[in-house]
Amino acid sequence: MMTEADISERNGYLISLISELQLGIHIVELPHKPKFLSHDSKLLLRCYVHNYKMILNDSDDNVFYEFKLKPTSRLNIDEIRDKFIDWLSTFEHTKIYTITLKDTGLFITGFNHHNKILKKNPYPVFAKYSPVVYYDKDRAEGIIDKFNDYQLIINK
What we know:
Elements: H1 4-21, E1 26-28, E2 35-37, E3 43-44, E4 47-50, E5 53-57, E6 63-68, H2 77-90, E7 94-95, E8 98-101, E9 106-115, E10 120-127, H3 137-146, E11 152-155
């Protein structure tokens, strides 16, 4: 089992790698179970991290490519970037929906409540990063209907 220090080290390697690749991939749900979104936040990418391994899956969830996370100075970034590009363009990834506030580029990142004790009268919280991800379009539409005071848009 990984310690908090191991998780922190692994995530540091992961963030450095994704930044170095320059493919616009977003990492969400850090620190324990990172997930990866496409540059436009419309796809949940079929990959995951297990301990210090990065695993890219094909459309049938079989392993396409895997490698050990370590400092980027010890990785062949060009080879990994080529594999990522091949993987991104070859395989189908999971369609997701996020919601933005019209003309701002701000995502719904969570909800707060006017009555914090009883959790009543919720309202959306917006930020530029880490959007709430919906796997079902009907659920995303329900959020838009519920908060019709705001000019919300589903990112398709």
